[in-house]
Amino acid sequence: MHTRQPKIACFDLGGVVVRIRRTYPEMFAAAGIDDDRLAATDFEALAKAATALGRQHQRGELNGAIYLDKLASLCEGLASADELARAHQSVIVAEYPGITDEISRLRSAGWITACLSNTNDLHWKSLLEMPALQAMDARHASHLFGLEKPNPEIFRAFERALDAKPEDIVLFDDLAENCAAAIACGWNAVRIDHEGDTAAQVRHACHDAKI
Questions:
Q1: Cβ-count burial of 4 within 10 angstroms (0-12 exposed, 13-18 middle, 19+ buried)?
Q2: Segment 36-61, tens digit of pLDDT
Q3: CATH homologous superfamily of 8-20+94-208
Q4: Is the Cβ–Cβ distance between 52 and 62 less than 8 Å?
Q5: In 10 A of CB 85, how many CB atoms?
Q6: Which one-letter DSSP state was computed for residue 205?
Q7: Which residue of 7, 13, 139, 211 shows the fewest CB atoms closer than 10 Å?
Q8: What pLDDT, on the 0 to 100 scale, is given for residue 211?
Q9: Whole-number Å distance between alpha carbons of 35 and 5
Q10: For the whole prediction, is pTM greater than 0.90?
Q11: Other beta carbons within 10 Å of 28
Q12: Local structure of 207: helix, strand or coil
């Protein structure tokens, strides 16, 4: 008798499972940097300069200590080392309401639940302590694979890790480029609005598409 392969619900983290701060001004303000320093900073230039550095960090090419040290050189005069560390950690705000319950509901319905997130070693430590991640069957991330979304190779690495077929995976992600890359790899994908009720969006997508 043929046994049906379980569906796999693959969750992005920031913007789907966890509410995050998305801009440097938000991060630095949350770290307690005063208004005068914030007003004097060209955050557009900082974001451009720090993008490549951040991507190296989330691919695991730089560990947290080296990343923060290099970031400090870009932020000279703006923030102390302690403030930079606080700003980096302030990216993670909190789980979205109801998302842990939705993950648990899917598991109870026979789904395998997992995450695949562009993140880094410093954030990963905090993320793993969250109930939503503890409720998942498997936890995967860019810095662990040495790859980042939307590179197709990270989706293949996830498939190998779970011994899964592309057609059995549904990605819930808030970025259009990640959803498009997953679909190109043969996955199903649902784009989530990070400003809305993410748990409800997951639930409705599963119900409406009968997936």
A1: exposed
A2: 888 888 888 888 889 999 999 999 99
A3: HAD superfamily/HAD-like (3.40.50.1000)
A4: no
A5: 18
A6: H
A7: 211
A8: 57
A9: 55
A10: yes
A11: 25
A12: helix
CA-nearest of 14, 120, 119, 126 to 63 is 120
Quote the tokens at residue 190: 């649902």
- Does the pLDDT value for residue 101 go beyond 60? yes
If you write DSSP's letter for every residue of 98-126 in order, what string do you get?
A: THHHHHHHHHHTT-EEEEEE---HHHHHH
> What is the biggest distance separating any 2 CA atoms in the chain, rounded to whole angstroms?
70
- Label residue 1 by pLDDT band (50, 70, 90): very low
Res. 208: pLDDT tops 90: no
Q: Which residues pair with residue 138 across a beta bridge?
A: 114
Say how far apart CA 6 and CA 4 lie, in whole Å: 6
Please give the structure tokens belonging to residue 88. Answer: 């980096």
Look up tokens 């562009």; give the residue. 118
Given a cut of 70, is residue 17 above it in pLDDT? yes
pLDDT, greater one: 59 or 80 = 59
Q: What tokens does 192 get?
A: 């989530």
- 60's tokens: 């695991």
Residue 200 carries which DSSP code? H
